[in-house]
Amino acid sequence: MISFQVNDMTCGHCVSSITKAVKALDSGATVQVDLSTHLVKIETTEADAVELSEAIKEAGYAPVAVEDSAVAPVAASASARKGCCCG
Fold it and tell me: What pLDDT score does 79 carry?
């Protein structure tokens, strides 16, 4: 499982955009998202962490790779988007 902290993911639209970006790269991937902790976990069938990170960046987000054992809720950083990406 590959995990990313995506602090600028703020709403369902963000979740959908990230999921679509991952699925475009690896159609067999399983994507689990916890919006409250800004955590995206991906069980990949084809892509590696670097490719997944690039796909999420291309979708407009700032993923930070995290070790599964180090995953803990993290408050959104000051540079994270304020409010919802939808306006």
Answer: 42
